[in-house]
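A.,

Following up on our hallway conversation. Structure tokens first:
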């Protein structure tokens, strides 16, 4: 782990206001690439959450190592094998594609396309696909048309896409407003922008700090999404906080609370809970020793919190927010 002194304060990435309220301080619990302390603020003007201080834009790539791009494929043998990746992500791909079910296949652009599995899948359903990936770390597993680099710097024909997608990407980018503005330009009239972000108005986002810091820079709310859409001439037509595409991490909440109550510091318990691959230790152990009590507690946790999560998801307070916005045909 290393420290970086190059953290900067920024205004709200959605509305530009500097009127904010500190919510909590946080760290890179998940990958532990840095010891830096970051702060999550909430904009009083537009309700969005955002990381500030945060790394500079130039520093961001160092927080994305190879591991980041294989978060679902833990088995080393699966790495590099296109068929294995499709198998592991089968449900996720079907659920993503379901958001495009009512649209006749046309031209699709996927921003933050990683290894290209989603555009490969959509191509097999008849779509003319193009991917953009910020980093050339993930391999182009399916030989798809992927352009590498900064989307904002790319020269792309206006009004040329029927659908643009961003799956769990917009919360990672430095300039979300500029992204959506450019996306609005690239969509044909009547075209759709479909994206998934985390929901800051959720217990997981606000209490359990389940956003992936410092990789998540903007913590969206439904109000902030509506504002962003209307400012860029787009209209929100569908939204959901269910977990069909990505899970929401409510499970573990009871274990978290009990560990906090009986002696763990906030940093200790969050590190145990969020470190990639340490999930079992969190649910079965007390300070790295097997614990019968924690194991029983984890069972109660599962029985209790899964139904709670189900209800919160349907009430719009789930951790994962999927949105469809449309570019109106006439202004
Ligand atoms: Zn704001």
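Then the amino acids I'd put at each of the 331 positions:
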């Amino acid at each position: 782990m290393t420290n970086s002194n190059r953290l900067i304060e920024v205004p709200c990435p959605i509305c530009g206001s500097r009127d904010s309220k500190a919510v909590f301080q946080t760290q890179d619990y998940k990958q532990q690439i840095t010891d830096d302390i970051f702060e999550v603020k909430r904009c009083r003007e537009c309700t969005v959450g955002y990381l500030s201080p945060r790394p500079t834009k130039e520093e961001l790539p160092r927080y994305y190592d190879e591991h980041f791009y294989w978060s679902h494929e833990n088995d080393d043998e699966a790495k590099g094998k296109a068929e294995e990746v499709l198998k592991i992500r089968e449900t996720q791909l079907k659920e993503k594609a379901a958001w495009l079910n009512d649209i006749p296949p046309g031209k699709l652009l996927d921003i933050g396309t990683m290894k290209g599995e989603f555009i490969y899948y959509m191509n097999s359903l008849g779509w003319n696909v193009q991917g953009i990936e910020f980093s050339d770390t993930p391999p182009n597993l399916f030989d798809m048309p992927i352009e590498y680099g900064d989307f904002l710097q790319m020269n792309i024909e206006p009004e040329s896409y029927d659908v643009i997608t961003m799956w769990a990407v917009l919360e990672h980018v430095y300039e979300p407003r500029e992204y959506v503005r450019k996306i609005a330009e690239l969509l044909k009239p009547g075209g759709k922008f479909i994206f998934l972000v985390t929901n800051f108005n959720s217990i997981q986002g606000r209490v359990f700090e389940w956003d992936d810091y410092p990789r998540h820079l903007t913590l969206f709310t439904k109000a902030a999404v509506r504002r962003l859409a209307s400012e860029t001439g787009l209209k929100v037509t569908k939204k959901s906080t269910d977990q069909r595409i990505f899970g929401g991490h409510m499970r573990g909440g009871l274990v978290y609370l009990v560990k906090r109550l009986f002696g763990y510091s906030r940093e200790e318990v969050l590190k145990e809970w969020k470190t990639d691959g340490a999930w079992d230790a969190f649910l079965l152990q007390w300070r790295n020793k097997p614990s019968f009590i924690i194991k029983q507690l984890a069972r109660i946790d599962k029985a209790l919190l899964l139904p709670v999560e189900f209800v919160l998801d349907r009430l719009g307070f789930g951790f994962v927010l999927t949105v469809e916005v449309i570019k109106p045909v006439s202004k």
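The chain has a mean pLDDT of 93. Curious whether your intuition agrees with the design.

B.
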